[in-house]
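Module 6 notes. Inverse folding takes a fixed backbone as the condition and produces residue identities as the prediction. Think of it as a translation problem where the source language is geometry and the target language is the twenty amino acids. Below is one complete input and output pair. Work through it position by position during the lab.
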């Protein structure tokens, strides 16, 4: 199959639409279920590249949760502790495979953004992973293969219309990529930069200590950024992205956005949130929305009389600003990557509030000295990679 006709492009009025291969090559995918659309395929192909590179860099199964051509979450398959199992809503599923743990992490880090995601898996989708996907609101999945039991579970989703794509793991794209904008063809060499530990060898701060676990987190951050719409920064802890800021014109706004997501990830682990008592039968999305509001500044939107009764069995106390700050002060050893240099130390000031200790960025700003000095003030270790990772 050299081409696949699609219903429409980014919007229903954009017709005709298709994906196709040039020359004699065939498409490296099979659609096993559903009818993926234009944006589905953009998410699928970007997500596949991300998880494939995460697997190559770490040796661990990887998963990504994509929305609108940027990852909402990305992670490798490390085991889940009891707290993570609870905040990712998989504590009722027993022991999970490494791939299922990877997707639980990728989906769970920012559940608000992951709602209606397109999933990418580095390995053959197993039954555990399919069971997690089955219970979530999602548009589709791409993987190098599917176990028979997993495929049957996925085919039953959305009344048989769930998008399931199988990609040839041996497919290698041409070294030059092209796209058109306004009828004009853009051409560039593919960004085939390999991200590994060697890229983190130029540590420019007084603190030179970056343990291997932090190097893994920094690699996850940089690989995630490679497929995130720029400007972008990514906070990572324990093998998973916990805050991704994408597509912001100002880098400090990006750092704040991603930092707030990282804070929310950690706040969801606080006793005040873990002990919330939801009404029976509440939908997963409604529960996630309620938690997001409860830990935010507009908490009265869910705690007001006449409102809380539809969400909680017992009205919870206000999670005060002081209590939240005290809890967040316990978050430590977070890694932060940036797809281009930090132009000011204010990015580091904001990162510190979210527990960042390790930083990777290209360097090259006229204010590098200020950024390094700010890292030194907080005892952070920062590596200059010398490589920009813009993605558009």
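Target side of the pair, the amino acids:
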């Amino acid at each position: 199959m050299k081409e696949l006709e699609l219903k429409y492009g980014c919007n229903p009025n954009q017709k005709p639409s298709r994906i196709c291969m040039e020359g004699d090559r065939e498409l490296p995918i099979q659609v096993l279920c559903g009818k993926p659309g234009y944006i589905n395929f953009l998410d699928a192909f970007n997500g596949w590249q991300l998880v494939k590179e995460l697997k190559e860099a770490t040796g661990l199964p990887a998963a990504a949760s994509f929305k609108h051509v940027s990852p909402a979450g990305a992670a490798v398959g490390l085991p889940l502790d009891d707290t993570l199992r609870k905040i990712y809503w998989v504590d009722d599923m027993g022991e999970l495979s490494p791939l299922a743990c990877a997707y639980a992490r990728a989906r769970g880090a920012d559940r608000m953004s992951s709602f209606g995601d397109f999933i990418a898996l580095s390995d053959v989708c197993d039954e555990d992973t399919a069971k997690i996907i089955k219970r979530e609101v999602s548009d589709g999945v791409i993987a190098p293969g599917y176990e028979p039991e997993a495929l049957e579970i996925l085919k039953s989703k959305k009344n048989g219309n769930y998008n399931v794509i199988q990609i040839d793991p041996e497919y290698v794209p041409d070294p030059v990529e092209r796209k058109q904008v306004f009828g004009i063809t853009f051409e560039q060499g593919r960004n085939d930069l390999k991200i590994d530990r060697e890229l983190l060898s130029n540590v420019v701060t007084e603190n030179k200590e970056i343990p291997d676990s932090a190097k893994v987190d920094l690699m996850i951050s940089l690989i995630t950024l490679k497929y995130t719409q720029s400007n972008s920064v990514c906070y990572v802890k324990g093998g998973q992205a916990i805050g991704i800021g994408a597509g912001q014109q100002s880098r400090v706004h990006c750092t704040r956005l991603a930092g707030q997501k990282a804070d929310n990830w950690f706040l969801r682990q606080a006793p005040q949130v873990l002990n919330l008592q939801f009404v029976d039968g509440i939908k997963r999305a409604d529960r996630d929305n309620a938690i997001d509001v409860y830990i935010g500044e507009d908490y009265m939107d869910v705690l007001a009389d006449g409102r809380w009764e539809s969400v909680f069995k017992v009205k919870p106390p206000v999670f005060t600003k002081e209590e939240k700050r005290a809890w967040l002060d316990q978050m430590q050893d977070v890694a932060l990557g940036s797809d281009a240099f930090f132009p000011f130390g204010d990015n580091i000031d904001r990162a510190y509030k979210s527990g960042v200790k390790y930083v990777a960025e290209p360097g090259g700003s006229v204010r590098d000295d200020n950024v390094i000095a700010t890292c030194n003030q907080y005892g952070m270790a920062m590596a200059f990679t010398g490589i920009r990772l813009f993605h558009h």
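Reference fact for the lab report: The chain has a mean pLDDT of 97.
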